């Protein structure tokens, strides 16, 4: 290209890329400082943890046994857990609470430590998809509200864990649900019997 040996050509490209990266970051910083409305969404996207989503494993006890909440994705209608991108300046478990409320109107008691994690694929609006890591927090169901932000945009179902596992098209989610079912069964078998 420039007549320079390959090593020098590679270094020249690296320097150009490094300068470009610094200019891009300075531009992003100036956008953030001036909070340009049109580009402010870009800065919030860039500041999120890369490819991490937070999910809510909402569960409840019924006379027929434990059930877990599943919702459909808005794009393809896949049965998933309520989940979303991490909320800035909030602990991850609070994001799980927010997602359960926004997507299904669920109010409950969250566990503050993650229960599990699995790999997933997130479909984007433009038809593309990206691989994500999903951090799962358990939320013990208390009530379901009649109105919530995404009402009518998704199907919502409380399912026995075995049925929820069958509807899961992601192997990682199936493993999380299987683990949850096993733990609940073990708890049930180890409970002390009531005195007569």
Let me know the largest β-sheet: 8 strands, mixed
Let me know the CATH homologous superfamily of the largest domain.
Answer: Nucleoside Triphosphate Pyrophosphohydrolase
Total count of domains: 2
**Tally of DSSP β-strands:** 8
CATH architecture of the largest domain: Alpha-Beta Complex
Question: What's the rounded overall pLDDT mean?
Answer: 80
| Multimeric status of the protein | single chain
Distance between the termini: 90 Å
- Give the helix proportion (percent range): 25-40%
3D structure, described in words:
The chain has helices spanning 6-34, 40-47, 92-104, 161-167, 171-190; strands spanning 52-62, 65-72, 79-80, 83-84, 106-110, 116-123, 129-144, 156-160. It has 196 residues and is of the alpha+beta class. It is globular, with a radius of gyration of 23 Å. The chain folds into 2 domains: 6-46; 49-190, Alpha-Beta Complex (Nucleoside Triphosphate Pyrophosphohydrolase), CATH 3.90.79.10. Strands 1, 2, 3, 4, 5, 6, 7 and 8 form an 8-stranded mixed beta sheet that branches. Strand 6 and strand 7 (129-144) form a beta hairpin. 39% of the residues lie in helices and 29% in strands. It starts with 5 loop residues before the first helix and ends in a 6-residue tail after the last helix.
């Amino acid at each position: 290209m420039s007549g320079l040996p390959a090593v020098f050509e590679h270094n020249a490209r690296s320097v150009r890329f490094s300068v470009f990266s610094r200019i891009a970051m300075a531009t992003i910083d100036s956008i953030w400082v001036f909070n340009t409305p049109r580009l402010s969404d870009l800065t919030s996207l860039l500041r999120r943890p890369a490819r991490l989503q937070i999910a809510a494993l909402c569960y409840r006890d019924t006379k027929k046994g434990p059930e877990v909440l599943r919702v459909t994705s808005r794009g393809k209608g896949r049965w998933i857990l309520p989940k979303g991108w991490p909320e800035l300046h909030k602990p991850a478990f609070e994001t799980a609470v927010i997602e359960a409320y926004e997507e299904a109107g669920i109010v409950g008691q969250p566990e503050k430590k993650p229960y599990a994690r699995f790999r997933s694929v997130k479909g984007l609006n433009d038809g593309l998809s990206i691989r994500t890591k999903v951090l799962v927090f358990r939320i013990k169901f208390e009530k379901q509200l009649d109105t919530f932000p995404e009402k009518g945009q998704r199907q919502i179902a409380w399912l026995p864990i075995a049925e929820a596992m069958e509807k899961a098209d992601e192997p990682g989610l199936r493993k999380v649900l299987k683990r949850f079912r096993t733990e609940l069964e073990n708890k049930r078998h180890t409970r002390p019997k009531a005195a007569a």
